[in-house]
Structures are given as C-alpha cells and as structure tokens.
Hints:
- This protein has helices at 2-16, 82-95, 97-105, 107-118, 120-137, 155-158, 161-172, 228-244, 266-280, 298-302, 335-349, 356-362, 386-394, 398-409, 416-433, 438-454, 473-477, 485-507, 531-547, 560-564, 574-587, and strands at 30-39, 42-52, 77-78, 144-150, 177-180, 187-191, 226-227, 246-248, 254-261, 309-320, 323-333, 375-377, 383-385, 414-415, 458-459.
- It has 605 residues and is of the alpha+beta class.
- A hairpin with a 5-residue loop joins strand 8 (246-248) and strand 9.
- The longest helix is centred in the C-terminal third of the chain and has 23 residues, at 485-507.
- The relative contact order is 0.07.
Amino acid sequence: MIEDIYLLGKVYSEIENIEPDFIQNPNVDKIVVIQFKEKNKRIVYKEILVMDFDKDNWKKYMYRRKSSNGPDFTFTAKITNIETTFINKIIKWFEDKENLEIVKKNKLLWKLMDEILTKKRRIIKELIEKTNELKNEKDKKEKYILTVMVDNNYVKDILTYDFFICGVKNRFFKNSGEGKCIICGKKKKVGGKFSVSMLGFEFCTFDKLGFAPSFNQEEGWKEIPICFDCGKYIDKGKGFLDEFLNQNSGLGFSYYYIPSFILKKRNAIEKVLKKIISISYRLNYENFKGLIKKEDKLYDIIKTEGDWFKLNFLFYVKPTAQKFLILNYINDIRPSWLNRIYKEDNEIIKEWIFKEDQMKKIIGKNWEGSFISPYFKTKEKGYISWWILWLKNIFSSNKEYIQFLSDILSNRKINFSKFIHFLNLYLQNNFKNNSKELKFSILRTLAIYLFIKKLNLFKGDTMKKENLIESNEIFEKYKDIFSNNERRIAFLIGVLANYVIYVQWEYRGKKKGEFENMPFRKKFNNLLIDQKKLQKIFINCVEKLVQYDKSIPRWFPENLKDCLNTSEKWKSSVDEISYFFTLGLVLGTLFIKYKNNNEVNENEE
C-alpha cells in the first residue's frame, strides 16, 4: 500500500508540476485571525478577524498538524475549543524549546511573542466573544483554523519555508538510522515513526507486536525504513487520497479507495489520476454513480477501465484527531468485479417482486414506484447505495457488517448459514418491536439475498432440487432460492398463516390498525421455527379456519400435508425454515384474493 501511495504522490506532483512541500490543506470553512500590526518598530495587537478560507491559496497558512496537545509545525491550527487551541497551539509554539531558539534570533518573532504573552487575557476574551458570535450566526458544523497575521502578512511571510522544512526533517528523523529505503532501494538515512504516523498513517503503532522489534519505538525505523526524498511523495500521495479518494459513508465509518497499479507505466497512472481529478471537480454531484455512496465517484472511475490496475479499500473510524481505527482493509479488487457488482445492483432494482404492482399488494394501494431506489439519503450529507444501507440495517454489529461488506467487495465466499442467521435475528427483532415494519424488513432482506445470490457468493446454499410441490409464479421466478420442498413448504405455510390472520381480522370487524395485532400471531414463536413448530403452526391454521367456518384455499397444494407430516428429519436449518416461513407470511397477499386486496394495508398509507 505504501508503494501505491508513493506512486500517486509522484505522478500527482508531476501533473501539478510542483515539488511536494509537506504543507497540508486544512480544508476548513473559515479562518479566525489574531491580527497584529507593526507600529513604531513594535508589534501591536489589533483585533480578531473572521475571514473566508482561501481555497485557491491555502499554502499561505502554512498548516501542518504535529501533535494533539502540543503545538503544530507553525502557529496555524485547527480549532477545537478556542481557548485551548490558543494556549496549546499558539502560545506553546513560541515556548517550544526548538522554536524558542529560532524566536530569540528573529526580532519580528521575538516582538510577536512578547505582545501575545502581554495581551494573552485580552486575546482570549476577544477570541471567545468572536467565536460565540459565529455559533449564533452560523451552522455549528462549520470548521475553522486559528492563525496569526502581522499587517497583511500570513504565516508563510512571517516564517520562512526553510524554518518549516527544518522542523519537518527533525520530526522525520526522530528515531532514525542508516538503512535501505523500502521505496527507492537506496542506502541512506531513513526515518522511523515519521514514515507512518507523521505522514498521516496513525494506525501504525510501534509499541505492539509486529510493528517494531522488542516493542521498542526507537527501532521502529527498521520495520518501514523510508528516506526523506521518498517520504515527501508518500505525503503528497496521502494528500491526494484525502482530497479525492476519501469518503464519509454517512453510516458511522469512512473509507479510502486506493488504486494499486499492476502496470507501473507513468502515462497509464497519469490517465487514471487525471480522470479522478476531472470527476472530482464536476459541480453536478447528481450525475455521479458511486458503488458505495453516490458521491464516491468510484463507478465513474472504473466503468471503462480494464483490470490493469486494482483497488484497495481501507474502512476506518476516526473518533478523535488522535485516533485512527481500522475496521478492515481489503486489497486487489478488480474493476471488472466492481462493474459486475454495479450491474447486479441495478438488476435487483428491476426485479418483478419489487415492482409497483407487487408493492401495492404487499405494502398498500398508495405505494408508487419500485420498492428499491438506487440511493437513499443518509442522516449525514449524501446518498448511500441501497444494498450498503440495508446491509447495515441487518447487522447490529459494526464488525459483522464491515466483514460482510468486505466479503462482497472482495469477491469472497459468504457462509450461507451465518448470513441467514443474521437475517432472522433482524426479522425477529422487528417482529417483537414493530410488526408493521416486518414487511419492509423482509423485502430488504430478500433484496440482499437475491443480490448476493446473483453474485454467486454463497457457500453452502445448495440442496438437491425436487419436484414434489406444485409450482406457482413466485417459485417459477425465483427457482434459485426456492430450490427444495422444505423451503417451499415453509413459505406456503407462512402464506396460509397470513390468510388465517386476515380471516381472524375479518371476523373481528376489520378494525383499522388492528390487522398486525391479531392474536394468531402469538402462535409464531417470535419467528423462531423448526420443523415441529412448523407442523404445529399448520395444525393451528387448519383448526382456526374450521373455527371460522373457512376451508383451506384452493391454491394450497393438496400433497403438502403429506410432505409436511413426514417423520424424516429435514435437512434445512431452523434459520432457513424460519426465514422462508416469514417470507411467506409477508408475501401472502400475492397469493390470496381478498374481497378487497388492498384493504389490509389501507391503514398504513
């Protein structure tokens, strides 16, 4: 991965025709300026200003983060708490031992420090007042940096670049030694901890097994030895990832997608990078077709590319500026596979079962359009692909969710038993807490099931096909999942149970809002159903129909009772029986010709 990021940085620098300089784009909305002026050979505090962040000339702020509680490389810093930021990032910058030696030799900096310390209380008071005004006037989600100006001079004019890069080199070569650089292969002085943490890879730690011999941070450079010349391109590549290939999913995690080039030809790499930059600079985000998120631009990048390069995904959360927690890392994903995922994603949306005619019968007469939209709005900014969102709904554990998502993206086989178990946990929870939500939940799980089935990713979802139970429209259209009698029987008894609930509701006067609360639902054991429980539910259905003077519907296969009452133990697991029963319970309205096929759902529209 490090070499891939180096290549990104190297080619990106050549495209820009600018040598990497380690200055970071703070990428904020506003800047809060502590304004000073030069008067009678003195530096005098003037006022606090708030200005728009200059997106085209951000290097004048000379920002680069250094540490969490201490100062950064210059006196430009991202604001958390304004008073804390001022003390830790501005005052402590001047008090830092290394910086103080330079400050003493520079008259401007010495006078500036003296005025800051003299007017400390006043500056803090006015900073708090100004930021409180901003909170009242603007959205609190806006991001700010705190910086210093003397007259019209920004940090880059107050400090020299030589001073800045000297500080960077000192940090780079902390815990260093003579070694062979893993990028260029040359033997020279190489950095240690800097090569991962200072370049923005906070996830690499040197006090844990596998990162440094004998848990010794001072020996960390031996694990990932990187020279300064290569380090600057890695830093540039990391900046490229942050600017163009980093996405917040809107579901509580973020991700990088990192190109890995099999053919390391400069022209080919430049073509991909220019394509990424061009797509990113489009103004109309509605035209994007992301694979995970609509705004991620991923599909637009890979749709016309062959498999001459691959993609790596790094899923992470960053709860604080200091913490970078990796959820999963998957590598070597081919564009052809991602194209197939996108194709099957769109095919599921068009499936017969999710079309408007079927939805009107299942959900209600006022339903319009397909059940599946390509993208759904997240609580945060942006839109997420339907299957990414629904997969998240199904898995309560973030770890399990990311694992299943990673399996799909990396073309790894998915254990069917484990998958169907999670589907049932999700459905059972919905059944207990909100019966009306069940029909939406089962449709979401069915969409995910069909999607993974089309991708041919299941391991263990095969049984001998039989022809004992007569077919119907659903069985014919979805032979791949209704592949054996046990599933068909469980489904049909679910349909029959749906019919009994309707009969009971009709018998009780069809009171609005009570269909989902009929007593017969208590027979379903919270949707945890094995072979014996299924047989018992069937007997309960027959008895209840006799009670209401109703017969078993004609569509119910005559030989199903014989198949159900076999003494032979079924091969299907409890999870499979439970799932297909629940599927029939919800999709029953597609079979049953009620007097008014929509009346059951009228109260939900």
